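Support request, please re-run this one:
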Amino acid sequence: MGESLVIVALLLACLIALLLIWVARRDANEVRRRAAEEASEARKELQRQSADVEQRLERIAEREERFEADRERVRTRQEDREEQLAARKQELDSLQQEFENRLRGELARIAQLSLEEAREEITERIRGEVERENRALIRQSERTAKAEAEHRATAILTTAMQRVAVPTSAQSIVTMVNLPSEEMKGRIIGKEGRNIRTFETITGVNVVIDETPTTVLLSCFDPERREIARDMLEALVADGRIHPERIESAHREASERAQQRTIEAGQKAADEVGVSGLAPDLIRTLGALRLRTSFGQNVLAHMVESSYLAALIAAEVGLDVDLARRAAFLHDIGKALSHEIEGTHALIGADLARRHGESQAVVNAIAAHHDEVPAETLEAVVVQIADAISAARPGARREELDQYVERVDRLEKLAEEHPGVERAFAMNAGREVRIAVQPEQVDDAAAESLARDIAQRIEKEMTYPGQVKVVVTRETRATATAS
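Re-run finished. Output below.
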């Protein structure tokens, strides 16, 4: 029993010893591992420090190289400057020597002059210097005056344009007429289309009846015809009686009302701009311009706008405001007669104003607004400026519309030149020409020949897109009155 205990004790002692040895080895391995890691970190840190030192040494070397290069450039520049200074000094010495030589020669020459000769020479030199200084001052004054004038002109025009706010006055070639009901369209067309044919033949206006409910379109390049046709159609719709005879009487009544509207439009425009004392014929002529356009811009609206601008500009520069306003208001009045009288609208308008008692200043401003005659007053120049501002305003004019109107007007005039033609109307945007002939002069066979002749003239003398259809209408009426 005692021996067993001893053996167990020995075994326990051995186990404890082994355990202690294992723990000691583990601790030793951990210490060695930590030491190895610390040594590795130390080597890495040493490598980083070495690389940092090498980079710093490289940067220091680069800085030294740049410093040496800069010092070399500075030295080279200094040497160049010293050379330039030496050359300049030599040039100055040469100029000084030359001046001294000239001065000695001049003094020697002056010493030989008399008192009177010396005085004259000095006076001549002083006069030359003064003239040169005066010329320089004049040039400077001219530049200053020009700059101030441009600035002042810009301010005046800007002020005038800002104070005149008007809408764009481009016009269309289509007028819309509202109807009370859809049933009215059938009455306008008439039996077998006789009403609409009579309406288009008398007015020279296309009546477009489409699927739009209670609406009829009147299409024509001539605004006077379109206005009369609109008035006619509204009167016929209001009356309710629509047949060829009633259409003819409505056309006569609408034409008479158009004359009154013309006078009212002219007087309204004159009252709007504050121009009084105009002759009745001038008022009537002005009113006729309410339906005329120039490159799409309403002529009467353009004249009103130009009158406002001219008055504002004249007030800014201290000119006669009433004269500028009156002349600008009348400057395009000749456009109402340019298709009837030969000549430019400026000269036609000036002659019309002269015959109706306008002053010479107004007449000259009208005639000179396109530089066809010299301007005699500053107000005439103001009229030119106002006209140019109104016409050049963005959106005011469209050249295509005016060219179109000119083309279709030429179509009508070409057809009316043939004998026997009573009336000619360009329809469907100039793609059709309807011609009414005098039945006693043109028979049925001659009507066909006339249509061919007109078509051939259009081909030879005009340029147009697509095709132009020529329609000749010959109508014979017999009328008797029972009493």
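The longest helix spans residues 2-111. The mean pLDDT is 80.
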